[in-house]
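Record format v2
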Amino acid sequence: MTYALYYSPGAASMAVHWMLIEAQIPFEARLINIDEGAQHDPEYRRLNPAGRVPTLIVDGVPRHESTALLMLLAERHPAAGLAPAPGSPERAEWLELMVFMANTVLPAMRDWFYAGEDGDPAGAEAVQALARRRIEQSWDRLDALLADGRAYLVGGKLSTADFLAVMLMRWSRNMPRKALAWPHLAVYIGKLRALPSFIELNVREGLSDWSNPAS
Ligand SMILES: N[C@@H](CCC(=O)N[C@@H](CS)C(=O)NCC(=O)O)C(=O)O
């Protein structure tokens, strides 16, 4: 099995990058800096016609969509234990959360950040207002789930749902109400950010603006 990840620091590629590091799956990392417009290069567009990151080359075939990539990697590397096994009691909750993040939180984040580019700039403010409401309602839902003191979202152990959730929570860091403002999310984020794989991920992506304070 061979992998090459096209990533941009802090972008939707981050969850996949984190999983590859945590599971110690060999891969090649290829930088596509979206702040510099590298996603529009014709060469990259051949791999990802939408001009977005991530792209994961899986055994020579370009694959897309961060949530699908996490689920695919979990399926191909079951020994890593990063998703509840099919048929296990936790599987339904994991599926539900992965789909919730993919079809509610990710699109709202896209609207928050790209309303003026993806749509008519004149309507961007209204789009962003709705996106913000959806994002904050999502934090309400995840905060309530974590209120029982669980360290991870599903099944008492680290899973792909945590990679996706923490990446999304990070994106809220400059929003009017950041995920860290929710009490149970703050505890959860603190624990997940302390994982050696998250620290290593930030080093590899050159990120330092959303780390736990040094103790
Ligand atoms: N649903 C996609 C979203 C991908 C996406 O929107 N990526 C953003 C970065 S977070 C991107 O590539 N932006 C560059 C652009 O749209 O020009 C996924 O989860 O992979």
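Helices lie at 14-22, 42-47, 66-76, 91-118, 124-146, 160-171, 183-193, 196-205.
The chain has eight helices and four strands.
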